[in-house]
Write a structure and sequence with these properties.
Blueprint: E1 6-12, E2 23-29, E3 39-42, H1 58-63, E4 67-70, H2 93-107, E5 115-120, H3 122-131, E6 138-144, H4 150-161, H5 166-178, H6 184-198, H7 210-218, H8 221-226, E7 254-259, H9 270-275, E8 279-284, H10 298-311
Parallel strand pairs: 3-4, 3-5, 5-6, 6-7, 7-8
Antiparallel strand pairs: 1-2, 2-4
Protein name: AB hydrolase-1 domain-containing protein
Domain AB hydrolase-1: 37-295
GO molecular function: peptidase activity
Amino acid sequence: MAEIPIREGQAPFKIPTINEPCFTYYKVIGNLSRDTPPVIIAHGGPGAGHEYLLTFADLWQDYGLPVIFYDQIGCATSTHLPQKAGDRSFWQEQLFQGELDNLLDHLDLRRDPGFHFLGQSWGGMLGAAFAARRPRGLRRLVLASALASRELGIRGTRLLREQMPPDMQKGLNEAEEKGEYESPAYKEALDFYYRNFACRVDAFPPPEMLPALKHLSEDTTVYRTMNGPSPLTADGSLSTWTVIPRLPQITAPTLVYNGEYDTSHDIVQVPFFELIPRVRWITFSGGGHMCHLEGEGRRERVLKVVGEFLTQEEFADAR
């Protein structure tokens, strides 16, 4: 088997309000030839880093699609900005839009054949907003377990909480009222939530998730400021975020997917399906928020659905 081409680099990223040099780390799997659009992969969190999405590196071997991973500013191997912890006006969608634009220009991806974009969770939120600008070069869009709005996301989380054992619901409510997010009752309930809705595997967490958990625990700047103290308490700078009014502006053919038990509940996928002009929505049976890491054939089905969507010549939506 031929050796897989891998290239790593840093894209200098100038942030007007930061006086120090900043950069975005990226990793290219495959060859960035001029006849095949690469797939840019945006991670979630915010602040989780790219490693838990390396499953999608197989798009190069299986479908001949070069894949570009990157760590968003503030986390993992890109520049960290702990001095901006708690600065809600700084940690906003527009910062990451600017970073993505900068990376596209650094890699010269806007000209033919263009590029595809896959965003998972928060990366999908960013991707939907990005695609609504109709950026030059964008060919196809994949929104993987994304949210159309934070308000709908909170409603979806509430529905999932109602499926948890009553004692855990009580523990969550009491911990949130007191702000005690390190209490044993809260941690037990959060562990149940992760295992049943985030990543449905026998041995949690799977090895692929460990780097993301490490990034999120070692530097809480981005996640705590943008999301909140935990996945179940979203009071950060994204608390009023929505892309719903912008969805009709997306012209790229779009694949939306989530899992049957996903933390990104069906109710947060509905606006994507109803408002994006050319769209297909698939829900993976038995899946959680990270179907691409799960067993029982879900990992393979995700790759097949995504790979075929990105390589098929014609697109027919699911309406």
